[in-house]
Amino acid sequence: MGLMELTTTSDHASIVSINLFVALLCGCIVIGHLLEDNRWMNESITALIIGLCTGVVILLLSKGRSSHLLVFSEDLFFIYLLPPIIFNAGFQVKKKQFFRNFITIMLFGAVGTLVSWAIISLGAIQIFSRMDFGDFDIGDYLAIGAIFAATDSVCTLQVLHQDETPLLYSLVFGEGVVNDATSVVLFNAIQSFDMSKIDPKIALHFIGNFLYLFFTSTVLGVIAGLLCAYIIKKLYFGRHSTDREVALMMLMAYLSYMLAELLDLSGILTVFFCGIVMSHYTWHNVTESSRITTKHTFATLSFVAETFIFLYVGMDALDIEKWRFISDSPGTSVAVSSILLSLVLLGRAAFVFPLSFLSNLAKKSTSEKISFKQQVIIWWAGLIRGAVSMALAYNKFTSLGHTNLRGNAIMITSTITLVLFSTVVFGLLTKPLIRLLLPPLKHATSAASSDPNSPNSLGVPLISHSQDSDSFLSGHDIPRPSSIRMLLTTPTYTVHRLWRRFDDRFMRPVFGGRGFVPVVPGSPTEGNLS
Amino acid sequence: MGLMELTTTSDHASIVSINLFVALLCGCIVIGHLLEDNRWMNESITALIIGLCTGVVILLLSKGRSSHLLVFSEDLFFIYLLPPIIFNAGFQVKKKQFFRNFITIMLFGAVGTLVSWAIISLGAIQIFSRMDFGDFDIGDYLAIGAIFAATDSVCTLQVLHQDETPLLYSLVFGEGVVNDATSVVLFNAIQSFDMSKIDPKIALHFIGNFLYLFFTSTVLGVIAGLLCAYIIKKLYFGRHSTDREVALMMLMAYLSYMLAELLDLSGILTVFFCGIVMSHYTWHNVTESSRITTKHTFATLSFVAETFIFLYVGMDALDIEKWRFISDSPGTSVAVSSILLSLVLLGRAAFVFPLSFLSNLAKKSTSEKISFKQQVIIWWAGLIRGAVSMALAYNKFTSLGHTNLRGNAIMITSTITLVLFSTVVFGLLTKPLIRLLLPPLKHATSAASSDPNSPNSLGVPLISHSQDSDSFLSGHDIPRPSSIRMLLTTPTYTVHRLWRRFDDRFMRPVFGGRGFVPVVPGSPTEGNLS
């Protein structure tokens, strides 16, 4: 209405910062596109650098005073930016690849995070307590371990690509998602238990908590997705409305995330599984134009949110307030950052290689095993610490009003240093590392085996659905051994086969899905552009 | 990350309210769909009623205490909800219809708002000053006039439909958009001039201000749209990326609105013209899947924002704090509401009928004239006062901390009463009124003459563009009189013809647009689903 000139000056400041952020986002998109073919850069690093430059300009313009423009808000991050990214990842994930490696992903996400957390915490206790820069108790050290053991799923999406390295992507990204549930349990455990006395009972309690949280979060996401599929199938049958379908899918997905947060579950796990279920059922119940719209809208929202996060982290890094406290002892901050980086490197190495070895033992064919080169990339790509670590560090070290303590200020600046360093250095080097270790020829063949069941391969389902599902079922049905024997020999495939049979017989007739929704009269592309 | 349980309780309250709102939005969409064929209801009234019911439930649950869940935020409304609605209206508007009635729309929006404002202000001065319920000065009465003279474009979208009554839609909605610029000028004038002494100099100053504001706001929107078209045409030529294109269009449109607000211009005018330019140029420069995505995404966002606004207004209406002050004198509030309603009815009648008469004088063919029945609908449909009036009333009567004054409390409750009454009563009766006055047969013929140039008719441009533009040009070129003589006889068509020639010769080669962007290799539907 143009009447905002009547309102107070704080509104004016927020209008200025919205203008700045939106303009910078446009800049990031354009520059990111121009640099697309560059072998080093990716969009996240571009956004980070643009954010840093803008921070410098603002700092110079405000003559060294801190600006309110730069305050990092956890709410903004966890409530608005993270859900679309994780949902889109679930929506576009290659489900076959993901579930084939499910056990390895669970190992990495649960056991791996614990190993990493233990090593970082122990290292922090041993080293930081001797450095005397702050007054931390054992709980603080364990929290530091949890903060830096958290893999950043958002960064993973930037450096690994589903089409180029599907196995690595599903392992590292899936680990990041499962990791979230582990982190929630860890944080709760640190708060409620006396972790200095670890006995088997606490460990059992911990495992029970993790399994409970993992199960409930997943079920909540699955229920939200199925409910959405059911509503659209029942209500919109025969008279589709693209706007309502798209709105309902977006809102239900968001609702699942917020409900999980409300119930103290893992929102990331919930919304990820909601995305998987929606792409398997709901997406096939809507019109062709709704399919195109949802696919691209979710991807666009995720893309904008990712760019925004990196821009934000870059701009926030230069907030002068944080650096003022450590200006008398820059050496300490550098030392703390280096120690943390070494602990992160060590902690990740300590679980990636042993767990990959274990996972390889269970697999028979050589093509399914994780090669040493792939292990190195898994180790490397998961080293990036991003906005998630930053938000957790802020939560831990700036809440309760004790930002002004020297120890807390050093932890915040060290986190920023670590985030900037790892994003830029590991981010820049991942692309060349993959090219070095895994020759491009190999990617091309693995990319060809894309899952026709996912929104990634738009249009294909309409043509090839019956052929594909039939070939999968019949191909495995010909020898027809007893299901139990097969479960023992090739477990993943049998689970998949049983699931497909169950899906076709019970789930799809109720919730819709590929081939189970009658075609709407009229052309699929033009029919219902309401 | 699921770590929000660590944060403070205020965050918990915001999570609860987000959950509630999102769940209610889902409910509104589903119920709205079920009631779609109902001849009385529309989506806005459904949302309003659901909001009211939820308000009652919350009131009962909190045992009469006011809840923070219910506070109406102007920022939320003007910064996040209004821009997508107005942008989408511009993006989907039938441009030919809109520009054909441009002069009438300007008359209604500028002169009409002034007439309405003068009548409501004078009536308020005459009546309210004798009622002695508050201590208002002349500026307050003029502000009351401005608040209730503002047509609510959002409500118009709900009761009039572009496809059914294109002339009425373009007149009433266009009036609402132009009205915004008038309101800004009016509010500024009330604040800066001594309006009690009106002399010709002030009137000239006022007209000058309006023209300046109208011109700069429009130009800003046009520049934003053209810039976006140019960037996409230059950068993405040959290698499209749907996600980037969609993101860029969304962000540039939003940027235009926020820039207008920053520069104290009319954001609504800016974003409306940005939408028109984007649908004319930018939309034709992107891939087929981007076109489908943008069309539906903008419509969906607008739809969700509209539903949210009505839900919000409904829930907010029952906030007990506001009603406490007038509990001793409910009669006054009812009287004030009734007087305001009568003034609004009178003020609108005072310009719709005379200005329609003037507009009809300038038109030669009977089919282009506004019939008396249509005038009645224009008068009726523009009577609805909605969230815009509410936001303005809040801005005027709750800012500066003097909410507790009795006069202000009465004005707020009267505004709420007027908004609820007009939305429900006029909203419910508009559909039957249109059916009564304009038989459906007539709509069908006018709906058939849809503009193939707009995103409303997806797919058509690719097939019929050359034929359409040729026929238009050649059809009028055959007699070929001098352009100036033609300008005097049939002004609108000549302006259109000159514009088309200018557009084809200078604008489209630079900014792209229908038929001026080479077809991307590969199938248009499947080619570039990045």
Automatic annotation (TrEMBL), chains A, B:
Q: Does the keyword Transmembrane helix apply?
A: yes
Entry keyword annotation includes Chaperone = no
Principal location: membrane
- One GO location term (cellular component): plasma membrane
Keywords, in A-Z order: Antiport, Ion transport, Membrane, Potassium, Potassium transport, Sodium, Sodium transport, Transmembrane, Transmembrane helix, Transport
GO molecular function ontology, one term from the record = sodium:proton antiporter activity
What reaction is this protein's catalytic activity? K(+)(in) + H(+)(out) = K(+)(out) + H(+)(in); Na(+)(in) + H(+)(out) = Na(+)(out) + H(+)(in)
According to Swiss-Prot or TrEMBL, what is its membrane topology? Multi-pass membrane protein
Q: Where in the cell is it found?
A: Membrane
The GO annotation for biological process reads:
regulation of intracellular pH; regulation of stomatal closure; sodium ion import across plasma membrane
Transmembrane residue ranges? 12-35, 47-64, 76-93, 105-129, 210-232, 266-284, 296-315, 335-355, 376-397, 409-429
Cation/H+ exchanger transmembrane domain location = 22-434
Q: PANTHER family under this entry?
A: SODIUM/HYDROGEN EXCHANGER, SODIUM_HYDROGEN EXCHANGER 2
- Describe the family membership recorded for this protein in Swiss-Prot or TrEMBL: Belongs to the monovalent cation:proton antiporter 1 (CPA1) transporter (TC 2.A.36) family.
Q: What is this protein called?
A: Sodium/hydrogen exchanger
Q: Which gene encodes it?
A: LOC113727511
